[in-house]
Structures are given as structure tokens and as C-alpha cells.
Amino acid sequence: MWRGLQTEQLERADVAIFGIPFDENCSVKWGAADAPAVLRACSAYLPPVTASGKQIFAKLYDAGDIGATFDQAFAMLSKLNGKKLTVMLGGDHSVSILTEKAFRRLHGSRCGIIHLDAHADICDEYLGSKSSHACVNRRALENGYAPEDISMVGIRSYELQELELLSQAPIFVIDADECRKRGTEKVVSLLAKKFQGYDAIYLSWDIDSLDPAYAPGTGTPESFGLDPLMVRDLICGLFDRLPIRMLDLVEVSPQNDINDITSWVALKILLEIFEKIGR
Ligand SMILES: [Mn+2]
Fold this sequence. Notes:
Radius of gyration: 17 Å
Low-confidence stretches: none
Oligomer: single chain
Bound molecules: manganese (II) ion
Order of helices and strands: EHEHEHEHEHEHHEHEH
Largest sheet: 8 strands, parallel
Structural class: alpha/beta
CATH architecture: 3-Layer(aba) Sandwich
Strand order of the largest sheet: 2-1-3-8-7-4-5-6
Number of strands: 8
Number of domains: 1
CATH class: Alpha Beta
Strand content: 15-25%
């Protein structure tokens, strides 16, 4: 796993990674519980070099998998705290409810969330569940984040209840069409300005932010999405400009994928991030 990057010693690591293989709160198609294992298996084939030929010097510690409970998430984040970056591999998006809550508890009030997703995920309840993957941001609001602490990027799907809430709450949204219209650099500077003065940012990355043509292996595919280069440049630009201390990658569903292309594109973007962390 993590060919050439992995260290067995946490104290030597720049990046710490763990998985939450859980998909019982998804709505359309299952399978995200398999993502951590498939991502790790694919990672063994990727050399520690970016697409532009830069060697990646970051050392990565893999802490294994945990169950989908807040106590386990908090214990894991506490253990890995102090690393330059913690990465969580989901899991459907509901697992981010646990890690975002733990992140807030560890980092205090000056921390924010960037939600990179096709979906706003701010339903109070979805299909009768308050723990649904469509409720992540609503639970974040209950777990200490103010509306101003949350920004959404790449959105192109809303429930009616979400439109109503977003029309009232000062949550910053840059939808997928606006990303294309403004271009990556402008979107990055808008977010950098928005989170000026924040100590720690949690970037929650739903793979369905990408168009399903590029990332079909996901449970809730949405058309009119972003292309991989835009997502790569957006995420890398955010890492250049903001103190991103935690990243999650959720909703990769290998059983709905074709030739693992969704896992591959996610890993290629992760490598670009790791190169930045290892500098
Ligand atoms: Mn989504």
C-alpha cells in the first residue's frame, strides 16, 4: 500500500490516513464501505511521483480502519492530531458527521468546512433518517459550526428543504456552473478570502463532485459535474492558500465502478496533495 510513501512510525509521518468502511446511511446505491480497501489496493501500483514528474517526499502513516462511531472517530483524530494532514477514507458521506464533529472539538471555534460535492447535504432529515448522507452539513451546524463556517463548492442538486434553508442561512455556495464560469483560480481566491483568519479547515471531498463520466463509481451520480483537472487544481489551490488540516474522501463505490477508474482518479489527486504536504 501507498507505495514508497508509507512509514510504520506515526512520529515520522507527515500525513496520517485511516478508513471508515461504512455505507449504511446512503440512499441510492451501496458499496462505499468497500472503498478504503480498494483505494489501498490500487495505491500499491502508483509510484510516488506527481503527474508533472515531481517526487513526493511526504511520509504517510496508515492507521487502519475504525467503526462508524463518534468515540472511535474522536480517538483516532486525537491520536493523529499534530500531523500536517489527516485523511479519512469513507464510507458514505454520513461518516463525515463524526469526523467533522471530532475536528471541531479538537480545533476549537476558528475552524471551517469546505464541502466539495454535487449535493448540498444539508437536509434535516432524509428518507426518515437524521444520520443520512444527505444530512452532513445540518448535523455540522448542530455540532458547533456556524453557517459562516461552512462553504459549499460544486453543488448541482438540492432538495426543496435545502433551498429554503440556504436562502436564509449565510452559507457560502459556489455551484458547479459558477465554478466553470469563474474558473478555478477565482474560486480558490474567493474561498481563501472567505476563510481568512481561520486556524484549521476541514475539506470534505465527495467524489460525486466530479462528473459521473469521470467518476462513475459512486452511489448517487449527478450530471453536469466538474472535470478531474478542475477538481485537482481546485483542491491543490486550496491547499496552497488555506490551513487544511483534515481531508476526507467519501462516496467512492467500487462495486458501481468501471475498471476502478473512480478510485484511480481519486488516488491521482491525493498524490498531488501529498506532494504539497511533503515539501
Ligand atoms: Mn454527494
